[in-house]
Amino acid sequence: MAAYPKDRFDQLPDDLKRIGAHRGPQKKGGGWLAFAVAVLATGLLVFGGLWGLSKFLGVDVGLPIFQAPATPTPTPTPTPTADPVLDPTTIDPTRGIKTTVLNGTPAAGLEDTVGDALAALGWVIDSRTNAGEKDVAKTVVYYSDPANEDVARGVVVSLGIGEIRLVSPETFPGMPLTVVIGLDYPGATPAP
Q: Is the dihedral of CA 173, 174, 177, 181 positive or negative?
C-alpha cells in the first residue's frame, strides 16, 4: 500500500475540537432551528394538500378558508296581487267567466252544496261534478288566464277557505275558473 507523506492538513490543533475535516463547532439551539424548519415544511405540505383537494377535486375539507365565498341570496320581489272581486255582478259579462265546481272529497253532494252557495252569492256556476280523486287535501281555485286572478281571489273570499293557482289552459280546457273542494273544506269529511 502506498504511503503518503504527512502535510499540514493531517495535523490539527488540539483546541479546535472538530470531528471530520470540515465540521465547525456545534452552536447552541441549532436543533430547534432544524425542528422549526421541519414543522413549517410539514404545515405547508398539509395546507397545500388540503387546498388541492378542495380546489381540484371539489372535496369539502370543512375549513372555512377553503370554501367559496357565500353569494348573497337575492331578496324575492313581492309579486303584485289583484284585488278580489267581492261582488260578482260587477264582472264584465264579455269576460265570459263561468265557474266549475269539482268535489275532491268523499262527501257526497258537496259539489252541489258549494255550487249553490256560490250561485246564491251571484257567481255564475257552469257545472258541478266529482273530481277524479277523493283525497284532495286543500281547496284550490284554479284559473287559466292571469287576467282572471281578481275573480279567482273573489271566489276564495266567498268560500272563506282555499288558495288560488294559475294553471295552463290545457289543465282544465274551456273552464276559466275551477274550484276543487278539498278535505280542508267544512263538511268535507262524511259522518261515519
A: negative
